[in-house]
TrEMBL record:
The lineage of its organism: Bacteria, Pseudomonadati, Pseudomonadota, Alphaproteobacteria, Sphingomonadales. Keywords: Cell membrane, Membrane, Transmembrane, Transmembrane helix. Residues 5-62 form the Phage shock protein PspC N-terminal domain. InterPro entries: Phageshock_PspC (IPR014320), Phageshock_PspC_N (IPR007168), PspC (IPR052027). The keyword Metal-binding does not apply. It is a single-pass membrane protein. The chain crosses the membrane at residues 16-36, 42-61. Coiled coil: none annotated. It holds the Pfam family PspC. It comes from Pacificimonas pallii. This is Envelope stress response membrane protein PspC. It is found in: Cell membrane.
Length: 127
């Protein structure tokens, strides 16, 4: 999982030039919303300005290097990467919270294994 903060055209996941897919990778917002926004903005607001900017970006921007593509797709890692790009501090707090919860669970397991359970010991001795 690589999270880069440089904009690249994502030709593999893109439909035409990969600009919307690149914006989705860069910002962490789903590509469907970028495409929908581009179409609606072209129709209702900017007219020909957005398609010209799209083509210019598609020609000028670098393609995403092959080593940045994930060949073994894991949806959980992808979701985490997108959340990290959207809100890095919140993602850090979430990871910290997960580690605290795991640490608590591990300490409970250790406590259960290491404490002397006299009732269990008597039952085992009676067998």
């Amino acid at each position: 999982m690589t999270t880069t903060k440089r904009f690249f055209r994502n030709k593999r996941d893109g439909k035409w030039l990969g600009v919307c897919a690149g914006l989705a990778d860069y910002t962490g917002i789903d590509v469907v919303w970028w495409r929908l926004g581009a179409v609606l903005t072209t129709i209702f607001a900017l007219g020909p300005i957005l398609p010209v900017a799209y083509i210019a970006t598609g020609v000028i921007a670098d393609r995403k290097p092959a080593e940045l593509y994930r060949d073994n797709f894991n949806p959980e890692e992808e979701r985490f990467a997108m959340q990290t790009r959207r809100a890095p501090l919140r993602s850090l707090k979430d990871v910290h919270g997960r580690f605290r919860a795991l640490d608590r669970r591990l300490s409970e397991v250790e406590r259960g294994v290491t404490t002397q359970n006299s009732g269990l010991a008597r039952e085992i001795d009676s067998l």
